[in-house]
Amino acid sequence: MLRRFLLLASACVLAACQSAPPPAPAPRPAPTRPVEQAPLPPAAIEHPASFRELPNWETAPIELPLSAFKRSCVKLKDRSAGDYLASVAPWAGYVAEWLPACNLVDDAVDDESARQILESLFTPVEIIDPAGKSRFTGYFEPLYEARYTPTPPFTEPVPALPTDLVPNGASPKQRLRNGGTRPYPARADITTNGVSAIAYAHPADVFFLQIQGSGRLRFPDGRTVRAAYAAHNGHPFKSTANWLMETGRITPGEASMQGIRAWMDRAGPIETRLAMNQNPRFVFFRALPEGDPNLGPEGAQGVPLTPLSSMAVDTDIHPLGVPMYVQTTAPGLGGDWAGMLIAQDTGGAIKGAVRGDLYFGTGVEAGERAGTMNAPGRLWVFLPKGVAERLEQTDIAALGFQAGSP
């Protein structure tokens, strides 16, 4: 999924952050032995903390994050109880150790009862980056005007998944007429040869939609559909914003979605196409019903994102579906902020143990708020009490990690 509209170096204009839901894991038999020692994540980790140590825990909103956690639990209950929550994070325990929490959170009737249930089930464990690094950014779901047929200025196809694309992990192939295959072409070749469309929109909007990875399309008849990520062409993401700055076409202060779109309007279609082609990655979409308008697109866990309750994390370190608690600051959050979030998404620029990208919601206002966010902070993971106790008993020094404050 890092993202949006300051100087988008930590945002999707400057870093690829599409997320595609992973396939559901195949059930596997339960293990024949319990976890004896859970390896720690590739970061230093503090000893388990008290909920009372969490900033603003007594007043933090719980209802929406808890509803997001319940949606993650639906995915969890479909898995084998003997699976690790995530193979990259055995420190987070087995699925079976999380199911009691999933079963009990339905008993919450208000913020206070939810807080008591969470305190009875979980222990907060702070994650500390060994180098003291931390960064929290924001992202959102764009909403763009669209048409069913090309009508100026809505002339750019919102590309549908092509029939000649052969899935091949991160390197999809193109099926040729003679039955052979080759690496899928880059953006310039795709746009020259043409694509099928799920709709038509302004060229700049389609470009940013591809960077964002998903969005909503609104038609003049009032219908709204989701443009959901379907696949990409396998080429690396390259920053058009960086190219525009390096060639003197824009200044660093213009390297935002709004600034780049303003440049495109001034530059005209030929220069605009040249700029867009500097990014060879090309994203395809599928049209889905809007569904609940209060929820966002599906994240990497395959559940809809919840505004200011879902967060993208580094899935090389953290498991999806885990409740977390973040303390950070941003104008779009009203200044200093602390709250509970659920790890439900990921992104290409989300790298690090104390790195998160908060989902702000849909539309212009959400985008403006998300664009103000780029600050350090603190991160706690909520672990079932038994899992946290096992971590506390682990010899951190013997594993080569260093606990302590950054």
Would you kindly provide a written description of the structure presented here, covering whatever features stand out?
With about 400 residues, the chain is an alpha+beta fold. It has two domains: about 10-15 and about 40-140 and about 295-395, Barwin-like endoglucanases (Beta Barrel); about 155-290, Beta Barrel (Ribosomal Protein L25, Chain P). Helices cover about 20% and strands about 25% of the residues. Strands 1-2-18-14-15-13-16-3-17 form a nine-stranded mixed beta sheet. The chain has a four-stranded mixed beta sheet with strand order 4-10-11-12, covered by helices on one side. A three-stranded antiparallel beta sheet has the order 6-7-8, with no helix packed on it. The longest helix is centred in the N-terminal third of the chain and has 15 residues, at about 65-75. The protein is globular.
What does the secondary structure layout of this molecule look like, with pairings?
Blueprint: E1 44-45, H1 63-77, H2 99-104, H3 111-121, E2 122-128, E3 135-141, E4 143-145, E5 156-159, E6 165-166, E7 173-175, E8 181-183, H4 187-193, E9 197-201, H5 203-212, E10 215-218, E11 224-232, H6 240-246, H7 257-267, H8 269-276, E12 283-289, E13 310-312, E14 323-330, E15 335-345, E16 355-362, H9 364-370, E17 374-375, E18 378-384, H10 385-393
Parallel strand pairs: 3-16, 4-10, 13-15
Antiparallel strand pairs: 1-2, 2-18, 3-17, 5-9, 6-7, 7-8, 10-11, 11-12, 13-16, 14-15, 14-18
Helix pairs in contact: 7-8
Organism: Hyphomonas atlantica
Signal peptide: 1-15
GO molecular function, one term: peptidoglycan lytic transglycosylase activity
